[in-house]
# Entry
Amino acid sequence: MTGRIRTAVLVSGRGSNMMSLIEASRRPGYPADIVLVASNRPDAGGLQHARAEGIEAIAIDHRAHPDRESFERALDEALNARGIELVCLAGFMRVLTSWFVTRWAGRLLNIHPSLLPLFRGIHTHRQALEAGVLLHGCTVHFVIPELDAGPIIAQACVPVISDDTEESLAARVLAREHRLYPTALALVASGRARLVEDRVKFESGWSCEGEIASPPFDSWSETPSTSG
Ligand code: GRF
# Structure
């Protein structure tokens, strides 16, 4: 297929969200092509999974670089050398500096396991249980220098059930992440969601309304679905 957006996924761990993006990118009409997986950890399971799918997977070990800036320059060079247009963070556990984030502004996405702006940072499921919320979920957002604070592209929610543990809640959210991230990437790669100043601007009819009206990501070239 021509005209698909060359996309890289950055991982530090098992890469289950990465796999959901790879699977989605193989569906007819999907507007992004996952052409590179990169990790700051040479032992990240995600690298092996990507290679098994025939996708180039590289390690750029942050420990081999004297500082954040030289690590990020190496990452930036690797992305540019492959003509990458969009970057998806998927369990990428390095905080990126404003130098990198600014270079990739509007082209850098992250998935976070909470309904932002609630529960930034780590242990989001524990935070949700401690807060006693009845709805929890996940968010895909554009990355800005402030952590977990970028403009929101898509969100999905799950119920919190009375005998939930961190693990059971995490599993419910993760299953929802695997559907949300491909939807959000498709919105951005197709140009239907873009960063304009500090807001996400959606093409009319295409805003992702969480569970209710997210259009199926195999129909991106067709007309948007409508919600009542
Ligand atoms: C996901 O929960 C994601 O939201 C968070 O890190 C986790 C990565 O999991 N940023 P995986 O590597 O995609 O399985």
Remarks:
- Residues 11, 13-18, 90-91, 111-113, 174, 177 surround 5-O-phosphono-beta-D-ribofuranosylamine (CB under 6 Å).
- The mean pLDDT is 92.
- The longest helix spans residues 166-189.
